[in-house]
Amino acid sequence: MRLHNRAAATVLGGVTFEEFAMARLSSLLRYAVVLTGDRDLAQDVVQEVLARAHSRWRRISQSDSPEAYVRRMVLNEYLSWRRSWQFRNVHAVGERLTDLDDARGGVLDHADGVVEADALWARLSTLGRKQRAVLVLRYYEQLDDGQIADLLGCAPATVRSHASRALKTLRLTERERIHAEEKS
After folding, report:
1. 154 lies in which domain range?
2. What's 113's domain CATH number?
3. What is the rounded average pLDDT of the residues 99-114?
4. Are residues 83 and 116 in the same domain?
5. What is the Cα–Cα distance from 178 to 184, expressed in whole angstroms?
6. Is 86 or 108 the better-scoring residue by pLDDT?
7. Is residue 123 pLDDT above 60, yes or no?
8. Residue 102 CA: distances (Å) to CA of 11, 16, 62, 123
9. For position 93, what pLDDT does the model report?
């Protein structure tokens, strides 16, 4: 039995699946949380992707970038929505961008930062899947429109359109929030 496990963990492309999963799990989870807005759903997505990646590791490990391949699998899983109805709606459930080591640096008042992050999660949850994916790929993954278009299987103009509509929606939602605060 032990020999079988060692054979399953043979080195492919220099890295075993187990080494890859241990090294990249937290990064994949952060990426999935930003996509889904829900830590539990993100864990489900990453778990399913890693299970599929394990069975395909020989082919994945021979690609130019196994990590990029697996991240693409995470994106596709998020966009596919093969899950039950309850997972089709993205809801903020207390996950905060500050928990994800965002690069904003120190916030003078921690409470303001938490409120701001929660408001951002709420606004992001109003976006459609592709709009949200475009924003995550552009601002979290730092990809350009051509790279995003390749990942989503569309034209760069479509990426720009999704981004424009998503940012417009976020701005409108922010104005509504500020207007409501001013009235109270």
Report:
1. 109-184
2. 1.10.10.10
3. 56
4. no
5. 10
6. 108
7. yes
8. 34, 30, 32, 17
9. 45
